[in-house]
Amino acid sequence: MLDALTDAGAVDVFFDIDFAFASDQGGDAAFVQALERAGGTTLLASFMQRDRFGPAAELTHNLPYAPFRELSWPAAVNIYAERDGLIRMYPSGEQIGTEFISSAAVLLAGGRIPTDASLEINYGFDPNLVPTLSAVDVANREFPNHMVAGRSVVVGAGAVELGDHYAVPLHQVVPGAIIHILAAETLLAQAGIAHGAIKYLAAALIALLLILNAFGRERPWRLVSANLLAACFIEGAALLVFQSWFLSFPTAFAHPTLMAFTLVKLARSLNIISLLLRRKDVQIHNDQALLSHLFAQSSDGIVILDEAGDPIIQSRSAEAMFGTDARGALLLPADLQATARRSKFGENAFDQEPLVRSLMLGGLSNGKHIEYLSTTSRFQEVDTNSDGPKHRLITAISARDVTELKRQEREIAYLSTHDERTGALRRGPFLEFLRARLQTDQPTSVFVLNLSRFKTINQLHGRDIGDALLEAVVTRLQSMDANLSAISRLDGDSFSFFVEQTPEPVDPHELAEVVRAHLSEPYVFSSIHAQIGLRVGFAKIDKGDNLGPEEALSRAEDALDAAKTMQGPAICTYDPKNAEQRERVRSIERIMPDAISRNELSVLYQPQNRLSDGKLIGLEALVRWRNEELGAIYPDEFIPIAEANGFINSIGRHVLEEAVGAALALPDSVTMAVNVSSRQFDGNDLLGDVQQALAITNLKPERLCLELTETALLQQDAPTIETMHDIASLGVTWALDDFGTGFSSMSYLSRLPLSKLKLDRSFTMSLDSDHTARTIVRSVNHLCNGLGIGFLCEGIETESHREILLSEGCNEGQGYYFGRPQTIEEIITHWNVGGAESKARSWA
Ligand code: C2E
Ligand code: MG
Ligand code: MG
Fold first, then answer.
1. Are 723 and 687 contacting, i.e. CB atoms less than 8 angstroms apart?
2. Does the C-beta of 419 come closer than 6 Å to ligand 1?
């Protein structure tokens, strides 16, 4: 191979192959001869190697075998990987034994470069561009001579299996021979750096800058792009030179020079400093304009004071607020001047949070209420001497006239505690005063009053008179010399107060009498004379009762409730028994909303019979309520409560649906009576409910009879009567329930679409003992005959009742004698009237 390469004109040949030991004699001799023929241009690998068989750390020096060494150059071939396993640096040589042996690449590059440090291999060279020949082709001389002529040849192991491969940046893994070649190329390229050319480059750069300078004050973007172009041009030219002649120019210095030049040019062309100054000027001008605008327009009075408390400048609003003297000088209150003067002595006054203070200008009652805020700032004097900067203190005062605001605040505070109409206390503040009174632990009495005819007066004379009356009631209470404390209006026409602490104990009943007498005196409003009734409830609170104000007031309200149940004007004291009753009502009210959803309501039916032969002619549906907590609750108790809180509507609808459904189980000859409350007419669609119940069940309307009590009818108005007529026009009949208890006028009866009168059971009950009862039965019978309507007597309990009533002309009756209220199944079994049962089932 060496002969073939030498003959082809190779400049030198480097064997990256271990020739450290003798091999077969013939081969070694032939190599020695070839080395001789090559004439000393051959490089042989020398290297340090860790002895595989010796102690672990021992390194052996592997110089070429002596006979070869004499005819060749030893070339160091050790290369060392960095921490990450990559080969980046190439050593300039290796100390092997006593000798320093230059690296293969250094020798291949002609030994011209005195490198004594490591060299960074330039992996920019492409290893694929290195021309390669296979050893066999070379040995057989099968290669074109021009590939070798005039070049250095490196002979090395290319097969991966031979293990002479290294990891490198960029090209992953390359054979050791290639690394030597790349290192040699790197050295040759460095040798090609035209150090001498720097002066030419510098000259060219200066010329370029002069050309750029010739552009004069260019637009910044042009300047920048010219600079960029120049930078590109320099780099491009250097690259071209490098590729063509392997000459590299150190271009790095050119770029900062260009950049600095451009920046200076840019600064000049933009005229930055004057621009900055101008901008500052405009900013200051704008700030000043804004401040003086604020100053002039501010509704708050603004005054700037010096350390002596004299105004430096003030806003027009400040002049208007404080006034000026004949010479136009501001008449600043002494307090404000003092504030400014104090700031001089105040420790770090300017660092403190500004304080809002207030002062009165003029008299306390009709003067101005001014609130002001003062801030002190330290100003630096413009002309400072050598002692350092001089400062002075400036106090800015911003003052506001809050007279109106304060007046409104007082008014709002008053209104939040006092009733606007009468000036009496509201409930909340009343309770607060009462709490304080109870805390003294001295006995007192709490009173609640209710005006009993107030609504009528309102309706009769109008709201203005009503309002005037309420006011007059409070004025009378306030003017009473009776130790009344915290007179309050609880709601519409209820008032309360308690008894102030007095040396002598006050008899609350006597006091109530006095108050009632005083308030019952007629009230005169121009031509109108009004008189009111009064109900009074009071509760005595004794030492050690330990009651809160709410409980104490609630006791007085309980007592008032008791007074309300009495006829005429009444005074009641608190009685725990009434309280129990009220508690039960509250419990019933509380559980009522869930009664229907919890299925606690049921309907029982009481028979209505023909008196002559006892034939069943109808049933009356009567609601029942059984609750887990309260047990059986009877309609006489819960219906009035349901009427008061509006639940009567859902209860009424529920009973109507149940009853109409139940009626289907009975023959057509049996009617179904359902009780209706007067409250079901108020804004509730009673007509719609009836229509719906009939539509769902298909019950004949004439089988349904609605019962309305006489007392309920007494309070009815035109719309109710209209609804009654509408329902009657469906075919449904109306019965007047409990007749004889409500004093109905006869004219009323003729205007109503009634089909039946039900005489109250109290008359039947007294038939045996009271002769007048018989007379009444007879007269009512006449009346019904005259009106052409039916007549039924309630409360028949005995055979005697039946006989008397029959003899007095009554044909129909209802009562325990015929049957108690019972379930529809019991009715069907007892009266043997199950004919229509299947119909009912299909409806259900
Ligand atoms: P009412 O409509 O006059 O019903 C008759 C009441 O008298 C029923 O009492 C019934 O049990 C009772 N009674 C019947 N025969 C006799 C008797 O021979 N002797 C005595 N001592 N009493 C008899 P109840 O069921 O307690 O109902 C009381 C009132 O409650 C009813 O009086 C009615 O006005 C009202 N009410 C009952 N259910 C409803 C309903 O579903 N809706 C409405 N709005 N009111 C109802
Ligand atoms: Mg009834
Ligand atoms: Mg009745």
1. yes
2. no
Q: β-strands 704-709, 733-739: how paired?
A: parallel
- Contacts of 12 by beta carbon, 8 Å cutoff, 6+ apart: 41, 42, 43, 107, 108, 152, 153
Indicate whether residue 617 lines ligand 1 (CB < 6 A).
no
Q: 99-103, 112-116, 490-494, 751-755: which range is least confident on average?
A: 112-116
User: Alpha-carbon distance 138 to 133, whole Å?
Assistant: 7
Residue nearest to atom 42 of ligand 1 (CA): 675
Alpha-carbon gap, residue 665 to 749, rounded angstroms: 33
Could you tell me the distance, in angstroms and rounded to a whole number, from the CA of residue 736 to the centre of ligand 3?
A: 9
Q: What is the pLDDT of residues 671-707, one digit of tens each?
A: 999 999 988 988 778 999 999 999 999 999 999 999 9
Q: How much distance in Å is there from the Cα of 803 to the middle of ligand 3?
A: 20
- Alpha helix (H) residue ranges in 730-792: 746-751, 761-765, 771-787
Question: Is 675 a pocket residue for ligand 1 (Cβ < 6 Å)?
Answer: yes
Residue 661 and residue 38: Cα distance in Å, rounded?
131
User: Above pLDDT 90, what percent of the chain?
Assistant: 42
Contact 649, 642 (CB under 8 A): no
Residue 707 CB less than 6 A away from ligand 1: yes
* Ligand 1 atom index nearest CA of 814: 15
- Residue 797 DSSP label: -
The Cα 125–Cα 185 span in angstroms is 8
- Beta strand 756-759 with 368-380 is unpaired
Q: Which atom of ligand 1 is nearest to the CA of 643?
A: 44
Spatial separation of the C-alpha atoms in residues 282 and 265, rounded to whole Å: 26
Look up residue 636 and give its two tokens: 């006489």
DSSP state of 143: S
- Provide DSSP, 311-324: EEEE-HHHHHHH-B
- What CA–CA distance (Å, rounded) separates 605 from 622? 6
Answer yes or no: is the C-beta of 93 below 6 A from any ligand 1 atom: no
Distance 737 CA to ligand 3 centre (A): 5
User: In the prediction, which pLDDT does 216 show?
Assistant: 58
Name the residue at shortest CA distance from atom 45 of ligand 1.
675
| Residue 34: how many other CB atoms lie within 10 Å | 18
- Residue 595 CA to its chain's centroid (Å): 38
At residue 242 the predicted structure's pLDDT band, cuts being 50, 70 and 90, is: low
| 593 Cα–ligand 1 center, Å | 22
